Amino acid sequence: MKKFTVEELISQEKVEARIKELAAQISKDYEGKAVQLVCILKGSIFFTTELAKYITVPVVIDFMQCSSYGADTKSSGVVKLAKDLDEPITGKHVIIIEDIIDSGRTLSHLVKLLGQRQPASLELCTLLDKPERRVVEVPVKYTGFEIPDEFVVGYGLDYDQQMRNLPYIGVVKFES
Ligand code: IMP
Ligand code: MG
User: Which structural domain, as residue segments, surrounds residue 85?
Assistant: First the structure.
């Protein structure tokens, strides 16, 4: 692991205020319905729990895990399913909760996979988006923040499994 420091990019206050706004928007959009949140492990756990706390319609939370970057900071382009959902989603209003969209490959793969299970609706919600790095287009309904093309950690996001527990979003600065 290369030596690095972390510089704050988005404060805890700003992250949590924005998550409350997203929760309010979702609560309004899904009024009279129930939502099934699909948390993409592990990066989305902090975001999912914080978001779920402020959603006012009935919520079910389920988990899915895809292959990760490992010790690298660039996507391998290969998406593998490590853990599937516990519950069927047929006829449910599903929202996939992601920590960050980079190339878009992970979400594009998941949308295809979950779309085949005939949910009543399927939307995407991401805390962070790096639009500059998009390789595959994905229709994202809810975005927390658009960020520049830098490697970030905190609020669930990791660098080689570390720094997930930072309460804010920080940029990793590698020492040369
Ligand atoms: P994509 O398939 O290229 O869109 O990659 C999305 C996944 O890559 C995310 O779910 C993260 O796990 C990981 N990822 C992408 N950018 C970062 C970053 O800046 N920090 C930490 N993880 C990242
Ligand atoms: Mg992830």
Answer: 11-148
Q: How far apart are CA 79 and CA 86, in angstroms?
A: 19
CATH of the domain at 86: 3.40.50.2020
**Does 155 map to a domain?**
no
> Domains in the chain: how many in total?
1
The series of mean pLDDT values per 10 residues for the chain, 176 residues long, is 93 98 98 98 98 98 80 61 95 98 93 96 98 95 98 97 97 91
Would 57 be classed as within a structural domain?
yes
- Asked whether residue 175 is assigned to any structural domain, the reply reads no
Which tokens is 68 given? Answer: 């990760």
124: Cβ contacts below 8 Å, ≥ 6 apart: 95, 96, 98, 107, 111, 138, 139, 140, 141, 142
Span 52-87, pLDDT tens digits: 999 999 999 999 998 755 445 555 556 788 999 999
Task: Please give the distance, rounded to the nearest whole angstrom, from the Cα atom of residue 71 to the centre of ligand 1.
Answer: 12
Tell me which residues have their CB closer than 6 angstroms to ligand 1: 43, 68-69, 75, 98-106, 151-153, 157
Residue 113 lies in a domain: yes
Question: What is the pTM (predicted TM-score) of this model?
Answer: 0.94
3-state secondary structure at position 133: helix
Pocket test for ligand 1, best of 69, 80, 136, 162 (most atoms within 8 A of CB): 69
Which positions are catalytic?
102
